[in-house]
Amino acid sequence: MKIAVVVFPGSNCDVDMYEAFHSVLKADVKYVSYKEKSLDGFDMVALPGGFSYGDYLRAGAIARFSNIILAVQKMADEGKLVLGVCNGFQILTEMGLLPGALKRNDSLQFVCKDADLRVENAKTPFTTEYQEYQEIKIPIAHGEGSYYADEDVLDELEKNNQVVFRYIKNNPNGSLHDIAGICNKRGNVLGMMPHPERAVEAILGGVDGLPLFKSVLKAGVKA
């Protein structure tokens, strides 16, 4: 399985994402510039966290027009895996691969801490190494992480089991339905605000993010 980690101007979690695959799991992963127009040969693409284009206008709004975006769209259409974490999630909503939007945290402050989550759907290609309703702890670091969608969209997400991760115990940003991560109907596109790549080694404080990366590689072996 060959994995691409896209680097935008302002990305700051691209190295974390790369090393989770490369150093921890010895996977075949490569950095790809936002300037590129093709992701041919890759089986998965990850859009990392950070502040692409300085979050000007709003988070992810400018990155959505980068050269690489059409290639990301193509991969999603082909059923290949697309992962967006934090700013990557914001980009996925801006480009329409996932419904809804991410707005300013209710506190209007940047929030950086560990968040308690529950795995709501353990049947996606990103979550098969988790147990259904497993409670995990994953770091968050965002200022615009409050998930918003109208009631019709929220009802559809719940009905189709597209809510993959949900905040429990404490909602850190005001996300509707306590949503921390969602997937598309097909299940091959996942967007989440928490940072699993920061929870893949005990020395980092925990390994609750590691099953996500193992799930991805397992899905690649089956493909």
From TrEMBL:
Report the GO molecular function annotations.
ATP binding; glutaminase activity; phosphoribosylformylglycinamidine synthase activity
Function, as annotated, reads: Part of the phosphoribosylformylglycinamidine synthase complex involved in the purines biosynthetic pathway. Catalyzes the ATP-dependent conversion of formylglycinamide ribonucleotide (FGAR) and glutamine to yield formylglycinamidine ribonucleotide (FGAM) and glutamate. The FGAM synthase complex is composed of three subunits. PurQ produces an ammonia molecule by converting glutamine to glutamate. PurL transfers the ammonia molecule to FGAR to form FGAM in an ATP-dependent manner.
What InterPro entries does the record tag this protein with?
Answer: Class_I_gatase-like, PRibForGlyAmidine_synth_PurQ
The region annotated as signal peptide is none
What EC number(s) has UniProt assigned to this enzyme?
6.3.5.3, 3.5.1.2
Question: Which pathway or pathways does this protein act in?
Answer: Purine metabolism; IMP biosynthesis via de novo pathway; 5-amino-1-(5-phospho-D-ribosyl)imidazole from N(2)-formyl-N(1)-(5-phospho-D-ribosyl)glycinamide: step 1/2
- State the name under which the record lists this protein: Phosphoribosylformylglycinamidine synthase subunit PurQ
What main location does UniProt list? cytoplasm
PROSITE patterns for the chain: GATASE_TYPE_1
Active-site residues per Swiss-Prot or TrEMBL entry: C86, H195, E197
Domain of life according to the entry: Bacteria
Check the record and name the HAMAP family matching this protein: PurQ (MF_00421)
On subunit structure and binding partners, the annotation says: Part of the FGAM synthase complex composed of 1 PurL, 1 PurQ and 2 PurS subunits.
Task: Extract one GO BP annotation from the record.
Answer: 'de novo' IMP biosynthetic process
In Pfam terms, one family for this protein is GATase_5
This protein's record includes keyword Zinc-finger: no
List the subcellular locations: Cytoplasm
Catalytic activity reads: L-glutamine + H2O = L-glutamate + NH4(+); N(2)-formyl-N(1)-(5-phospho-beta-D-ribosyl)glycinamide + L-glutamine + ATP + H2O = 2-formamido-N(1)-(5-O-phospho-beta-D-ribosyl)acetamidine + L-glutamate + ADP + phosphate + H(+)
Q: Which UniProt keywords apply?
A: ATP-binding, Cytoplasm, Glutamine amidotransferase, Hydrolase, Ligase, Nucleotide-binding, Purine biosynthesis
Q: Which GO terms describe its cellular component?
A: cytoplasm
